[in-house]
Amino acid sequence: MDEDTVLVWVTKYALTCGIQLVEAKALGGMIVYGPTGPGRQTAHGKDWHLTPTAAVARAEEMRLAKIKSLHKKLAELKGLTFTAPTEHGE
Fold first, then answer.
1. CA angle, corner 29, sides to 24 and 35, nearest 5?
2. 10-34 tens-digit pLDDT
3. Looking at the 3D structure of the chain, how many domains does it have?
4. How far apart are CA 68 and CA 37, in angstroms?
5. Residue 64 lies in a domain
C-alpha cells in the first residue's frame, strides 16, 4: 500500500457480496479502487467506511431497510386478487 492509498471497508454491495476490505484512493467524498481500466470501481458517501465498526453498522441498516421493503412487497402481493376476463377485449 503506497502513501496515496488507504484501507477502507466498502458496503456498497454488502447485501449481495458482504463487506469488502480494499485499498483505495480517497478523492473527497468518494473512493476509487480495484484494477485500473474497466474493472475500476467507485464508492460514494455511505458506501465506504474508515472502520470495520462503521461498516458493520451501515450493513445492518441496509439489511433492516431491505427486510422492511420485502415486508411491504409481501403485503402488496398478499393483497392482490385476480379476475379473468369473460369476453374478448375486456
1. 25
2. 999 999 999 999 999 999 889 999 9
3. 1
4. 37
5. yes
Q: Is residue 53 part of a domain?
A: yes
Position 67, amino acid: I
Residue 84 has pLDDT above 80, yes or no: yes
* Listed residue (15, 66, 13) closest to 42, CA to CA: 13
**Residues in Cβ contact with 20 at an 8 Å cutoff, skipping those fewer than 6 apart:** 9, 10, 13
Q: Is 19 part of a structural domain of the chain?
A: yes
Cα–Cα distance, 3 to 45 (Å, whole number):
22
Cα–Cα distance list, 38 to 14, 17, 33, 79, 90 (Å) = 22, 20, 11, 44, 50
C-alpha cell at position 11: 458496503
Q: Tell me the residue range of the domain where 52 lies.
A: 6-75
CA-closest candidate to residue 1, choices 21, 24, 20, 19: 24
